Amino acid sequence: MGLDSQTPCYEIDSSEVDMEESKLIGEGAYGEVYLVKWRGTEVAAKTIRSSISSIEIVKKAFLKELALWQKLRHPNIVQFLGVLKNPDRLIFITEYLRNGSLYDILRKKGRLDQQTAVAYALDIARGMNYLHQHKPHAIIHRDLTPRNVLQDEAGHLKVTDFGLSKISQKRDNGYKMTGGTGSYRYMAPEVYRRESYGKSIDVFSFALIVHEMFQGGPSNNAETGEQVADKRAYEDSRPSLSSYIYPDPIKMQASPRMLAQEPRLQTDIRRNNRTAGDDPTGSAI
């Protein structure tokens, strides 16, 4: 890639990170995640696939996102630490959360008790609200899934990998904010239909994650993610709110709004979590 003088102070010298002793701990749509040590501290090194990073417009988008990420500070957002000088690959460093993801938690525990599920939902909401309230422009995650929500040692959840889908998207449709980004099973209908969209797509994904925490996982595992997304986009298919235990305020008010077919009918994350008894715009933001 060749990060040069245009790269600010968050550039990390490659000699400080031993990639040869790295351990692969994850793999996703955009690349691999390795556990490495930087200045004696365990951190996560995230690589962007060469099929994505080799495109010049993607490189420029990556650098632009870095300038934004290094300014973000919130207890429910995974902390960006810097970018590694590397002529061949795009590699950025974040804090390492050893407790794994919400996906791992749901796979191990199944349905969560109400207190835990609501606490987790509020953690995600606080992080997402921070991104959505960012000035001058809201930060849209575009790929909010249980795998992109990590747990810290205190048991709180943090949102990660926001912006990666946007970077990848440069490969296909330049700067137009439309089209097949994100994971099918959590994809808002307007994204699947390749329509223009806004931050309501994250609200839709958030509602599905909340559903899974009370349900214990996806209710439609027999279908592929793409089949699920297609039915939601063209048949108005939605998860049932009566097949499991939901706290009444969420069941009766928040979830139907968050899963609305039309983006203009979807409410925002801040309003929905006031329904659950919390204002995510509190002092942490």
Automatic annotation (TrEMBL):
It comes from the Eukaryota. Residues 218-285 are annotated as: Disordered. ATP binds at residue 46. Signal peptide: none annotated. Residues 228-238 have a biased composition (Basic and acidic residues). InterPro entries: Kinase-like_dom_sf, Prot_kinase_dom, Protein_kinase_ATP_BS, Ser/Thr_Kinases-Pseudokinases. GO terms for molecular function: ATP binding; protein serine/threonine kinase activity. Keywords: ATP-binding, Kinase, Nucleotide-binding, Transferase. Residues 19-285 form the Protein kinase domain. This is VH1-interacting kinase. It comes from Actinidia rufa.
